[in-house]
Structures are given as structure tokens and as C-alpha cells.
Amino acid sequence: MSSNQVGEADVYVELGWVYGIPQNDPQMAERVLDYDQILLHIGMDPATPQVLGGTVELWLGGQLIVFNTTTAVFIPKGTPFGPLSYKEFRHPHLQLSMVLGSGDPYAASGRWAGGEASNAVPKKTQNFDFEQYVVRSPMREAGPDYVEGRQNPTMTYLSRTQVGMVDCYLEFGWIWDCPAPPIPKMRHDDFDEVVWHLGSDPERPEDLGATLQFGIGDELLEFDTTHCAYIPKGLDHGPLAWKEVRRPMIEMALMLGAGTLDEGWANSFFDLPDGARRGPK
């Protein structure tokens, strides 16, 4: 997603599969962005969703960060990051980069720390533990305790509860059969949202492995490919109903500007008996 694709989007997202230890990767030098960024590595085995399938080494603020689980890393604007490399690789998984505050691909590319690409080992210059920006294990709070066909509660990998300076909320969960009941219609009055549905076949990355009907505004859209939707504040969306699920897939949501579940989804759902709205379960 970028502002070239959705003009009003102020978020830039890149998504890619990792099939092995990357060679000659541009992530191999330290960089700096003028915007906050989220790096998310997702293990793609629905039976063990927190197992990444590799061991990643990332330099953040000159400090070495190592992880082998599904992990989110929050990178505040101006914080040097990289290089990123793999200590080991076991099976394919997903890597996402989300730049917050700009949908411009050029702004999202950042600049080399120190003015030029360098193979030198980064140096730490701040007396700060950058591990505070790393979430290796999720909270389980979003959604009811049980929904047939899907992982509930979902996995919250970034919130103000986990990283105190964060002003967004990122959660996702696996779907392996048609969820019942479907997600109801909703509206967020104060916050923009980005919603992904991600297929799990590394050989066919655009195949969702399911057929989904997704209400956006006054239209009921149908998808059978991996996709991303930008939902401006005030826009009705949902219900989300699956016609079929052929292969496990991921549903993910990023609420922009809201750091907690209650803040982001307050008074959002249109499913009370009298048609009134409610907050998250």
C-alpha cells in the first residue's frame, strides 16, 4: 500500500516472503527514516503461529536484537536501524514493513545512517535499552474467547500497553474455516484503519486460499487474493463473511492513532439487538 495506490493513505506497506537466507540484501546497511516504522516478521504455520521459522539479527540504535519468534519491532523516527540478517533459516515466513505518517515510497526508503551505505558494525550512542521496542510474544485480548473457524482472541503484537510511546494498535489471527458468526458491520469515528487478508502459500503468494465478502461503504466486495484495504475514519465497513476457506490464512488490522483496543474500537460494532453500536468484546 502507498499513496500512489490510495491517494489519501498516509501509510506505506511492503510485504514479502522470505524463502531462504537473503543475499546482497539492501537491508544490510544501517538506515534512518523520518517517520515511525513497524517491522513485523510472521511465522506462517497456523499450528505454531509464534514460531518464525528462522533466527533474525537486527541492529536497532546500534544494539543487536535477536529473535526467532513471530515478532514486531517498533522503530521511532530518527532511530538508526539495520543491518538485518539471518543467523539461520528453517522454513518460509512473511516480512512486513509499515511506515506510519507517509504513503510516499521515496520518503519510506529513508537515508543511510552517516550519509552513505557502510558495512561497519553499528555503534550504540544512547544509554537506552532498545529491547523496549521489541514484542516477541503477543497479548491475547482482541475478540471474544471463541469463534468457530478462527483464532480468538487474536494476537496483539503492538499497542501502547506493550510499547509506551506507540500510537497505533496491531493485531492479527489465523482463519482455517469459515468463521461463525461473521464479523459484523462497524464504523470507527476517530481513526483510520488498514486491514489485510494474507494467503499462506509461499509458492502462490497472491492466492488468498479463501473467498471473502467484505462490505466497504455501500459496496459488498468479493476477494480471493491477498489484499489490503485502507478504511478512512467514519466509513462503514463489514460485515466480513467467508464463502469458503481452502487453506489457512491471516486477517490483520492496524488502527492508526489509537494505542489500545478500547480506544480504537470504542462504539464501533453495529450488532446490538436494537441496532445500536458497541465497543470490543
Radius of gyration: 19 Å
Report mean pLDDT, rounded to a whole number.
93
Q: What is the total domain count? A: 2
The first-level CATH class of the largest domain is given as Mainly Beta
| Proportion of residues in extended strands | over 45%
Q: What is the β-strand count? A: 19
From the N-terminal CA to the C-terminal CA, the straight-line distance is 29 Å
CATH architecture of the largest domain: Sandwich
Structural class category: mainly beta
**Number of helical elements:** 2
N-to-C order of helices and strands: EEEEEEEEHEEEEEEEEEEEH
Main β-sheet description = 6 strands, antiparallel
CATH fold assignment of the largest domain? Jelly Rolls
Low-confidence stretches: none
| Fraction of helical residues | under 10%
- The best one-word shape is globular
Features:
281 residues; mainly beta; Jelly Rolls; 2 domains; six-stranded antiparallel sheet; five-stranded antiparallel sheet; 2 helices; globular
